[in-house]
Write a structure and sequence with these properties.
Number of strands: 12
Radius of gyration: 23 Å
Low-confidence stretches: 1-5, 12-35
Largest sheet: 4 strands, antiparallel
Mean pLDDT: 93
Strand order of the largest sheet: 3-2-12-11
Length: about 575
């Protein structure tokens, strides 16, 4: 009999925590060490909601992320923020965090000294390919592993919940619809994360079934859209709001149900899904804006240029998307038994201390996005001096302030290490929705309408800066304001890399890309007009931990990005 070696996405299935239905408490830390069977214990409302909650917050956002920090929001999101130039890696950090965010080259002053080009001897593409193997994963050096493992673990549990749901007694039709919406939403979320990062993936509809038919990242995004629409269908059909509220309150961890993390109404959840559908389009299309040129082009990209029909769809979705003050999906830490901890569970918390000893370092390019006089600059401090990193682009004058302990009020707090102090936005938010709509308006000739939304976001976050609407900005000037505000307002939300990618900035200079007019420190001098040639891989190869154990079928899509 042939020995079957399970792919990585199934490993977590053997470690799913189960909250016993006989328990009077419904918290994430109720783990039965005897590992009771699903069929025998998840048979009523309390059991199925606890299982479904654990499948998201523990299997999806915690399991296997103990290498750097202790959650999905510290390591997989860490790569996003490194490549999005929100943070730099610290000296001697593990998991390739000192290398994954280092550009191929940079020119400190392309005007005054065009011949001064500083080159990285270990480009990102060589790091990705050189360490994409099981041995590197075992020693915490394969960056491609973590997001894949987390998201497929989440998908696997949601498939399990959907399969068990008909065996659960005592649920009204609207309670069943709420659980189904939960499963479809999180599966749609996971496929969105996978399809926006990896060149190919797998579509899994049944738990613990090995499937070796890899499909393109475009097909993965299409699967995400299909599931998000399935969740919409369930939510729109719910008649008894009391039944809905009872179940959704059980599905969200108690510690998250504060601030904007209170249980979503059906209307708010529908808005979140619409914003996610818009995100799936925006982040997976090219809309190049290189060196201030709205007509820039990128060659050799793995995604097509955005079309007028795409902008129209984004406008339609965002008009029905998350609104100001809506509850959204968030995460909060607790003192113990939490799916992430306060001091090291997120990129922002790992960054929120002196730059001399923080794991991640605030990028000079992030702080550059906030104009002089922006009240949100209180999130940053220069009191700890300059950190000189392993790479010149990691050097920074700034530290991220612990906004809670510092008593910051009236502005969006970016970082904190206090228990329960940091609200982590897991899904779409009002700011993201408004800025997508703003960009779509600007790109379709409604510049002032778009600028008005940027003003609204700045007011919402307490920026206190002068309005830009009605100031007669050109298309290029408006896009410059838009790119600055997206990078400022949505920092530490796992989106910045995708923005830099679609604007063309992460592509190599030979493809028409790069980032101009940036701040960086080189040889002790602060430059404010540098050129950065990131040349990052736009969509990652599939992790070898998967393909080695689950050989792609002959008809599979390529699992290695052919454009690099």
């Amino acid at each position: 009999m042939q020995k079957i070696i399970l792919p990585i996405r199934f490993y977590t299935a053997f470690f799913i925590m189960i909250v016993l239905a006989s328990s009077c408490k419904k918290q994430l830390n109720q783990i039965n060490p005897n590992s009771p069977t699903l069929a025998g214990n998840v048979t009523n409302e309390q059991g199925i909601t606890a299982y479904a909650m654990g499948g998201v917050y523990w299997n999806g956002f915690n399991y296997g992320d103990g290498w750097l920090g202790n959650s999905y929001f510290s390591l997989p999101w860490g790569y996003h923020e490194l490549m999005g130039d929100v943070v730099g890696g610290g000296a001697g950090s593990n998991n390739q965090t000192t290398t994954m965010g280092v550009p191929d080259s940079f020119t400190p002053d392309p005007v005054g000294a065009p011949g001064t080009v500083v080159t990285n001897p270990s480009p990102q593409v060589s790091i990705i390919r050189g360490y994409n193997n099981a041995a590197a994963t075992a020693s915490a050096n394969n960056a491609l592993y973590y997001e894949w493992a987390n998201m497929y673990a989440m998908i696997n549990v949601m498939n399990t919940v959907l399969g068990q749901l008909p065996n659960v007694s005592g649920l009204s039709a609207d309670k069943v619809a709420t659980v189904k919406a939960w499963c479809y939403w999180w599966k749609g979320y996971a496929y969105a994360q996978l399809g926006t990062l990896y060149y190919a993936g797998l579509i899994e509809d049944k738990p613990n079934v090995i499937n070796n038919q890899f499909v393109s990242h475009t097909a993965i995004i299409a699967q995400s859209d299909s599931l998000l629409n399935a969740a919409l269908g369930q939510l729109k059909g719910i008649a008894n709001q009391g039944d809905y509220t009872a179940v959704v309150t059980e599905l969200i961890p108690t510690q998250c149900q504060v601030g904007l993390g209170l249980p979503l109404t059906t209307t708010q959840w529908i808005g979140t899904i619409n914003t996610m559908l818009a995100r799936n389009i925006l982040l997976n299309r090219l809309s190049p804006f290189v060196n201030g040129n709205p007509n820039a082009t990128i060659t050799g990209a793995s995604i097509p240029a955005i079309a007028s029909t795409d902008w129209a769809a984004i406008i339609s979705y965002c008009q029905a998307g998350v609104q100001s003050g809506d509850n959204v999906f968030t995460g909060r830490s607790t003192a113990s038994n939490s799916f992430f901890t306060a001091p090291s569970g997120t990129v922002a918390s790992l960054c929120a201390t002196s730059n001399q000893n923080s794991t991640y370092k605030v990028s000079e390019r992030l702080v550059q996005q906030f104009q002089a006089g922006d009240e949100r600059l209180a999130n940053f401090s220069t009191a700890n001096g300059i950190f000189t990193g392993d790479a010149n682009t990691n050097s920074t004058r700034y530290s991220l302030v612990d906004g809670v302990s510092a008593g910051l009020t009236g502005i969006q707090i970016l970082g904190s290490r206090q228990v329960g102090g940091l609200e982590v936005y897991i899904g779409p938010t009002y700011e993201e929705n408004a800025l997508m709509l703003a960009e779509a308006y600007i790109q379709t000739g409604q510049i002032d309408k778009g600028l008005g939304l940027i003003d609204a976001v700045r007011a919402y976050q307490g920026a206190g800066v002068a309005p830009v609407a009605g100031t007669g900005l050109t298309l290029a000037q408006a896009l410059n304001v838009l790119t600055q505000e997206r990078l400022a307002a949505l920092a530490f939300r796992g989106l910045s890399f995708y923005d830099l990618r679609r604007w063309g900035w992460t592509y190599g200079s030979s493809k028409g890309g790069g980032r101009w007019g940036t701040s960086l420190i080189y040889n002790g001098t602060v430059y404010t007009n540098a050129y950065i040639n990131y040349n990052y891989m736009d969509y990652w190869d599939v992790p070898a931990d998967e393909t080695d154990k689950n050989k792609p079928s002959a008809s599979s899509a390529p699992v290695v990005n052919p454009n690099y």
